[in-house]
Every structure is written in structure tokens, then in C-alpha cells.
Amino acid sequence: MNASTRRVAVLGGIRIPFARQNGPYARASNQDMLTATLEALIGKFSLEDEVLGEVAAGGVLKHSRDFNLTREAVLGTRLNPHTPAYDVQQACGTGLEAAILVANKIALGQIDSGVAGGFDTTSDAPIAINEDLRGLLLELNRAKSNAARLRAITKLRPGQIVPQLPRNAEPRTGLSMGDHAAIMAKEWGVTREEQDELTVRSHKNLAAAYDTGFLDDLVVPFLGLERDQNLRPDSSVEKLAKLKPVFGGADGTMTAGNSTPLSDGASAVLLASEDWAAAHNLPVLAYIVDAQTAAVDHVHAREGLLMAPTYAVPKLLERNNLKLGDFDFYEIHEAFASQVLCTLKAWEDPVYCRERLGLDAPLGAIDVAKLNTHGGSLAAGHPFGATGGRIVASLAKTLKENGSGPGLISICAAGGLGVTAIMEAAA
Amino acid sequence: MSDRYQQLVNTPIGKIVSKQIGLPNPVRLERYERGQPVISGPVLFGAAPGGRLAGATVQVLAAIDADVHTPMQEEVRTAAADAHLEAKVFNPDAAPEEQTFKALVFDATGIADSAQLHELWAFFHPTIRRVRKSGRVVVLGTPPEDCERPRQATAQRALEGFVRSVGKEVRKGATAQLIYVGTKAEPQIESTLRFVLSPKSAYVSGQVIRVGATALTAEGIDWELPLAGKYALVTGASRGIGKAIAKVLARDGAHVIGLDVPGLQRELEETIGELGGSTLVLDITDDDAPARIATHLLEDHGGVDVVVHNAGVTRDKTLGRMDEDRWDMVFQVNLSAQERINDELLTREAIRENGRIVSVSSMSGIAGNTGQTNYATSKAGVIGMVESMAPAVGKKRLTINAVAPGFIETQMTAAMPIATREAGRRMNSLAQGGLPVDVAETIAWFASPASGGVNGNVVRVCGQSLVGA
């Protein structure tokens, strides 16, 4: 095995526009969306018949038959069929985790190139049969005599027809992610106004990214959709103020506006060693420098479910000898506006930084002008597995245009998980 | 002694009726019971920028294991982090109305100019209606006399008006106090902060307390038994307020030496016997009383740690009708005896280091009262004695303070005509009379070895009475 590591180059990425649940992609499967996205990536970087080191991708809401979805998608593209593939799943951290996995293999010299991707459909969602019925069918399958089969069949009940729908709830708390975010918002005293302001900024930044052409080579139309369906360029604090709270009770501060909607979409990024990039005549946009995951104890210690990135980032900073304020760009996934604001407040809070993170001093504030400069999940939508790829591709191009500086990615995920990474502009 | 009116208005129907016709609605005040936490409910702590007491305050709040909330204010949060206190965040703009607090504590020492008094509004306006039943409002300031600049002194003096008004506005048995913490007295605030936050100060409101610097510390003190190993002399200990004082000091771990006149010997022995203390029977107005007391204390106990001058008498008559005996008698018991005992004990060094002298004054001594020219003069004299002796006593590493009880429910007040009694009971912010234990708890706070910084104070135990305020 290689004793030294190599720099991992981000060559670029692409995604399909994100659609709202039961919107234009209502009949598109995860595999359809990933295949279309990979095809767009192949076209963008001329990867036809290329044997890549690997393709790693994943999503959160998958059918049980889709255990090898990424491989199946690869087989449906113009990539050389000798390109291996595997599925990844780490809730909303899936896309970034896939990029970290591919990057690490490149860094170790195990592969020279790879694609990291992600997808999710909340429209074409898996519906499982009733758990009682499933037990009964399995019993029927196990039965060896007709009498035993008959006994099993007599246990059939009308209620067993009710299917099991995927739930947006934490298994160990029974609370939805929004409920958890509402608890965090209350703990940190986050106001409705702050959340709505952040939301408006997200929409304005994403709209500007379309208008200036920044997204022209990052988004490819799919099923007639050209821009993210959730984007409201004319969003304003006044308009958002009219929405009723959906989480945190009647006097809650979280609305459908300042929370991400359920959405459908897919994304993919191309990573490679510098040598591979040079050999293929592809310019390097940025490098993946380091990554860190963390988890909180939201079950016993009742920590904020979406606060894990607050733990991961200080470790990243220490390892790379950086301060929180040193970044030119911050990409903090906007699961909810309140989640971003809680994270920022936590990093500014001496108590949290000392007692939870074990730091002598708070990490401090960041310049919000550097936050999600080309829009965030609140505006674009958040197909769970696809968000990481969207962010990596967007930040790589942002860093390239800026010409210097590091950028920070922070993504919170269900199960109290957090996935974070540092990228750096190519010289 | 029972307050029938209070019982009546606290019945379901009484509550409705009294609210409809606007009668005073005294709530049952929470009072301290052994083993209780200092404060049972969340505490909100904030500070004006540039204050100097956040660190000391937060340390006390951490020590009493309070559920502390603070605004997202760097100075305060840093202080909390330094004290390893996992203070929660409070933002009035985001908090629902039902988020309430048992206490609001505000460090106002950063206010250096009248314009900055705005900070009081900023902190209390969105929070004052969140104070719970029997809640506490505590403002910490710098004594005007310790301020370097006139504007700072002016602004700090202004705090008194604020706290006294808040005391009248908060309802449901809540109280408000101002604690002036002298320069370098930051480490001394714990005993006082514990007292004003706890139910021990149930009937103390609208008071201004001064805590000064001292070299004495109370490290390692057992807050459940602060007087363990200490000897406390209580005069007039056989009944009423004196009996309550003896009980509370004994509860706090002191060996109580109860003193009373020969006529009350049996009652005295019964009261003190239950507390495991000892008795001293004599008339404090006797010429040889101070010497006998000092000798007894030195010979039997090797000295004394706490001296409580509680014994007092009334001989009421309007001045024109008052004979010479009534006048003299009151002075001898209420003031002269205290002076002579103090002098003797101090001369013979019978009070040990970090010792305490606590006198019982009276609201009459502050406000005056018809028919009490003798009594009020003697009790005002007690205040004079505390104020004049405090500097010298402080140099000897002792303290001298006084309580000034208002309307306290005793046998004496039970015998009052109903109109006078009802007026006395209701004319205060808490709309009820106090109990002897309220006076005793205040004395126990003065008596604590941790109260070395509390010297020369006169604290009223009067529910913020309108009289003499």
C-alpha cells in the first residue's frame, strides 16, 4: 500500500434541477435521475467508454430491489461497463460521504479517478407491505405442508392491507427532523425573522447564480425542468412572514418557507488525481483537503439532532491549522434555516464551545456574506443524497473563480450525524 | 395570629371575588425548609456591558446548581463557560410567553452613565412579566460612594428607584432587591446572593444591601450548617421573634445561648432545651449584666461568635402623656443595654474573629410612630449604633448589622385592634404580615461566617412596607 498520499482534484460536477415532491419528476425513479446525471457528466468531461476507478453514489429513500442501484445506473450509461460501482448511504450526508470515499481512494493511490454522486426521490418512494402481512407471507413461505399453509392463510386480516409508508421521523425519538430542529431553535433563541432573512438570502443567491450564468455548466435540464422548482427569486421577508408555523407548535418559528421541502433530484462530481486530470487534459478546479464526520447523542444526552457538524468542524480546523474565520467561502447545508443559525450561534458561544466541544475559546462568528454564496438547500431544495454533490460542484467552481482560499462544507444528517470537509482552490 | 383574610382570598371563590373588586390578594409566600435547593426554578442572568460581577455571580449560580439561562451576550457566556456552567440561551424575541423564571438577576455595574440606564429597560422590559410566583428580582450595582466619577455614581444611585418600583410592580409574592457590591468585594457576594434568591428572604423586599471587601473568606463552608461549631447569644430568646431566631440559628448548626429575664426562665429553658442550647437568666439592664454575660461566655464557651440583640420592650403613650419611667425603661432595654454589652464584649475580646453583632431595630425606628416616641427613638438609635460602630468593628474582623422588622405576626400584633392590624398587614408590597421566622432568617444571613462582607447594613423585613419607605 502507498505510504504517501496524493492531492485529490475536483474536476467539476453537474446535477439535474431539483424538483419538489410530486412535481415534474413524480414518475422518475432514482435510477432514472442518476443515469441522466451521470450521462450529463460524461458529456461534460468526455468520459465516453472511459473506465473510471469507481462510481460511488447513494440515496436515502431506496427500494429494497435497488441494492445495486449505482452499478445498474453505470451500466445504463456510456461509461465503460468495466467501471465498478457501489451504493453509499449516510442520510443527508450521503453525497459528501461518497465524495470523501472516492477522494480517499484517490489519495491512497488505489484509484486514479472516480465519480461521487447522490440522488433521492420523495415522489417515487418505496412503500413496504404491512409488517404483519410480511410476517405472515414469510410464515407461508416456510410452511412445508398444505395444512400449515392453510393455518397461515387463516391469519389474514383486512387491516393488514394498510402499507408501511416511509416516515420522516427519528427512530429513537419518534420526532420528525423538523420537530428536532424546532427544539434546537428554541434552545438557541432563534427568531422567525432571522430564519426568514436567511431564507431570502438563499433564494436571492441562487437566483443570481442562475442569472449570471454561474449554474450554466452545473445544472442540466431534465424532464422539462430547467431551474430548481423550489426557487422563488422574488422571495421576501414580508412574504415569508405570512406563512404559518409547521414545526414547534402554534408559536413556533419554523415554516414551510424556512424549512427545506421534500424534493427529487440527483448530482455527480468527477474527482481524480492530478496526473489523471493532466492526462485527460481536464483543468483542476479545487482540491479536497480533508474531511471529518461526527455524531451527537440526541438520544440520551438530548443534544440537538442536527448539531453534529459543530463537533466535526473544530477537529478539521485543528488538524489543518485553520481558524473558523479563515475561509473564503462557507457551504452550510440549509436543512432548515434554524439549523444553520443554531450552528453559527453554537460556534460563537463560549459555553457551548467549552462545555460541549472542549475548546478554550469560541470558534467565533463568520462573515455571512461568505455563506452559501450561490444559494443553499432552502432555495434549491434538498433531495437528501444529492445535496453533497451539489455543494461540492458549486464550491469547486466558486473557489476556481475566486482563485484562492479554502472553503468549508458542513452538512448535518439524520441520526445525529454530521459530515464536513475542507476544499481549497486550485492555483 | 392567623391571617383569615389571606385564607379567604386564597379559596377558589375568594380569588374570583377579590380579583373582581380589586382587593389585595396576598399569596402564600414560599418559605425555606431544610434540604430545599436555594432556588427552585430557572434563573435568568444578564448584565449591562462592561460589568464586573458576571464571573462572581455565575460562580454562585453554578454552586447552587441553578438552572441558568442567559442572553447570547459574550461577556456573560464567557463567564458561564469559565464557571463550567452549562447555561442555556434565552432570547426574549424568540421565547414563547410561557417561558418563565423563578429569578431575574442583572449585573448593573457596567452602567457608568445615566444614558446607560437604558440597559435596565432592555433586560427587564421583556422579562419582568415572566417572573414566577414567589420569584426574585435581583439587581447588582456598585455603591455610589465607591464610584470614581459623578456620572457613574449618579447612575448607580438611580438603581435604588428602579428596584423599589419593581418591588411594587412584581406580584404573586415576588421580591426585588438591590445589592451594592463594593470594589474588590466580588468574592463576598455568595451568602447574600443565596439569601436573596432563596425563600429565606420571603418577606424582605425593596431592600438595598451593601457588600464590602474583607480578607475573611468562608471557604469550605457547609451551606446547610453554616454555623456549625459556632456559639450564638440571643437576648429575649424565650418567645416571639427571639424564639424564632434561636431556632433558626440552631438549625444552621449553632449552639444557642438563650438569654432572658428571670420572670421568663421556665419558657426560656423550654425553648432552648429543645434546641440543645444553654441558658443565661438575667436582666440586661442590671448594672453588672454586661460583665456577667462576658464572663459567662468566656468561661463556659471560650467566647462567642454571634451576638443577637433581640430583647426589646414597648411602653406606648403619646409624648405628652408619657411618664419618665416609660421613657427611660424603653431606652435602657432597647438601646443602652445593647451599647453596654457590646462595649464589654469588645473590650474583653469575648467575640471571636469573624464574629457577628446583629441588632433588632424596627420599622418605627425608620418611620416613627404615634405613641412610640420612646420606642422609635430607641430603635433609630440602634440604627445609629450599627452605622457608627461598623467601621471600627469591621477593623476587628467582625461585623455589625441590624434588621428592622415591619408588621410581623406575633402575639403582640394579634392583640392589636382589627383596623390597625389589617392596615399594618396590607400596607406593603406583599399585602400580608411577615412571620417571626422571616426576621430570624435575615439574622441568620447576617450571622453566617460567609457574610464577612456584610457590615453596617440595616435591612428591613417588612414586605416593602409603604411606611417609612
How many H/I helices of chain B? 16
Q: Which strand order do you get reading across the main beta sheet of chain B?
A: 3-2-1-4-5-6-7
> Quick check: average pLDDT of chain B?
94
Radius of gyration of chain B: 22 Å
CATH architecture of the largest domain in chain B: 3-Layer(aba) Sandwich
Portion in helices of chain B: 25-40%
**Rg measurement of chain A, Å:** 22 Å
Shape estimate of chain A: globular
Which secondary-structure class do the elements of chain A indicate? alpha+beta
Under the CATH scheme, the architecture of one domain in chain A is: 3-Layer(aba) Sandwich
Biggest interface pair, residues each? A-B, 19 and 21 residues
Total strands of chain B: 14
Structural class of chain B: alpha/beta
- For the terminal residues of chain A, how far apart are their CA atoms? 29 Å
Quaternary structure annotation? heterodimer
Helicity range of chain A = 25-40%
- What percentage of the residues of chain B does DSSP assign to strands (E)? 15-25%
Characterize the structure shown.
The complex is a heterodimer of chains A (427) and B (469). In chain A, helix 1 packs across helix 2, helix 4 runs antiparallel to helix 5 and helix 6 runs parallel beside helix 11. Chain A has 14 helices and 12 strands. The radius of gyration of chain A is 22 Å and the shape is globular. Among the domains of chain A are: 31 residues; 173 residues, Thiolase/Chalcone synthase (Peroxisomal Thiolase, Chain A, domain 1, 3-Layer(aba) Sandwich). With 427 residues, chain A is an alpha+beta fold. With 469 residues, chain B is α/β, with parallel strands linked by helices. Chain B folds into 2 domains: 190 residues, Rossmann fold; 231 residues, NAD(P)-binding Rossmann-like Domain (Rossmann fold), CATH 3.40.50. Chain B is built from 16 helices and 14 strands. In chain B, helix 7 links the parallel strand 6 and strand 7. At the A-B interface, helix 6 and helix 12 of A face helix 4 and strand 3 of B.
